[in-house]
Design goal:
- The chain is α/β, with parallel strands linked by helices.
- It has 16 helices and 12 strands.
- The strands form 2 sheets. Strands 1, 2, 3, 4, 5, 6, 7, 10, 11 and 12 form a 10-stranded mixed β-sheet that branches. Strands 8-9 form a two-stranded antiparallel ribbon.
- Strand 6 (about 135-145) and strand 7 (about 150) form a beta hairpin.
- The longest helix has 29 residues, at about 320-345.
- The two termini are about 30 Å apart.
Length: about 400
């Protein structure tokens, strides 16, 4: 397995066949809801939560991540029983829930997305699942799409590319799995105290829950899927439509961080070979340039990832592996930039590129000059107007999104 822990791997291999009984559940649970522009959905989430959680619900903490809409005002006005924590800026998913968990006083905590509608008995079932498996640090549930189809019954990562894959076969009993989604994510307090907070450098989101589950399994805990707990996920966020390049940059950035943090040396070799092949066949411009931006970001942050790996996984990053990461990520960035340039060159006319580039801020022009001086593209490749225009367009976007 990619995290290089044979004990965790063997535990994971047998986990899919393991079921557990359900002794008495713990006394109380605090639900933590990270809020970001949730004005259209937060009322429905809270109404369902209070209607269907029963006596196990000890309290609700909403962490508003500096939402520019009226999410926090709605909560303060209509739900005074909710403990509302306000952040002056967006801490991201992991940063927000860390703040909420630190403020919670109950034995266990459940993270709940703002656009989730819980069903009757959900919390009782989660509590029973955790109580029935003393080794379980984390528990998730059956998550339904808005149309009632199954979206999640546990999850796993497809290797070697580390793409997330939700399982959809609902089991009869609680079952150990590789990881569960953060949309509904129960954490045993004792495990939280042993493992520490979620890694807030998966910013603003994506892969933080997979990371936490892999950390837990590496340290001898298990992850549980509890089928009797059911929640409907409305999947209301449409921010990716407004800026698909930013969305895919963030997705790939978190995926690359996960790989650099958890993979063993042999797994890295397989990952880079597969990722280069995926880039060579990538049909979408936003995906190609998003990979380039993600690789460059991960390359800059390798020292921080190395420290996290030591602190959270008790695993050093040998010099040879660090070099493999540096060379591999640089290669991905180059390959992805070439693919993005190819896409633009073949999809847009020089006239269209000239129109799009008109009025670019001077700071972008200066960034392009610096990048060209750094020879991101070989000078010999600039031999036609369309290629030159394509390079300018790609590099302008690279400069604009570099630190987004």
């Amino acid at each position: 397995m990619a995290h290089g822990d044979s004990a965790a791997s063997s535990s994971s291999a047998s986990a899919s066949l393991s079921t557990v009984s359900s002794p008495a559940p713990p006394a109380g649970v605090t639900v933590v809801i990270p809020v970001w522009n949730g004005g259209e959905v937060i009322a429905g989430c809270l109404d369902a939560l209070y209607a269907h959680s029963g006596p196990r619900l000890a309290g609700v903490i909403a962490v508003d991540n500096g939402s520019p809409d009226d999410s926090a005002a709605q909560i303060a006005r209509s739900y005074p029983q909710v403990q509302l924590l306000r952040s002056g800026f967006n801490l991201g998913f992991a940063g927000g829930v860390n703040l909420g968990i630190q403020a919670a006083g109950s034995e266990d905590v459940v993270l709940l997305n703002q656009d989730c509608l819980v069903e009757a008995g959900w919390l009782e079932a989660l509590c029973a699942g955790l109580a029935g498996d003393a080794q379980a640090a984390i528990a998730g549930c059956t998550i339904l799409n808005a149309d009632g189809t199954v979206n999640h019954a546990g999850a796993q990562l497809e290797m070697p590319l580390a793409y997330s894959h939700h399982l959809t076969t609902v089991t009869e009993q609680p079952t150990r799995v590789e990881y569960v989604t953060g949309a509904v994510f129960a954490i045993r307090r004792r495990a939280w105290e042993a493992l520490g907070p979620l890694d807030a450098d998966y910013y603003p989101a994506y892969y933080e829950e997979a990371d936490y589950c892999w950390r837990a399994r590496r340290h001898g805990w298990s992850v549980l899927y509890v089928p009797q707990a059911r929640v409907r996920h409305l999947q209301s966020s449409r921010a990716w439509r407004a800026d698909p390049l930013l969305h895919w940059t963030q997705q790939h950035r978190s995926r690359y961080r996960f790989v650099a943090k958890h993979y063993a040396d042999d797994d890295l070799a397989a990952f880079f070979a597969a990722e280069e092949a995926a880039i060579a066949a990538e049909p979408w411009f936003d995906q190609a340039l998003g990979r380039a931006l993600a690789a460059r970001h991960t390359l800059r942050g390798l020292e921080g990832i190395r420290r996290r790996r030591q602190q959270e996984l008790e695993s050093d990053l040998p010099l040879a592996m660090q070099r493999r990461l540096e060379v591999g990520l640089a290669g991905l960035a180059q390959a992805a930039l070439r693919r993005a340039q190819w896409y633009v060159r073949n999809d847009l006319t020089a006239r269209e590129l000239e129109r799009r580039s008109a009025g670019w801020p001077q700071r972008l022009v200066q960034q392009i000059d610096k990048l060209l001086q750094g020879r991101i593209f070989a000078a010999s490749s600039v031999h036609t107007d369309i290629q030159r225009a394509a390079q300018s367009y790609v590099l302008a976007l690279l400069a604009e999104y570099e630190y987004a």
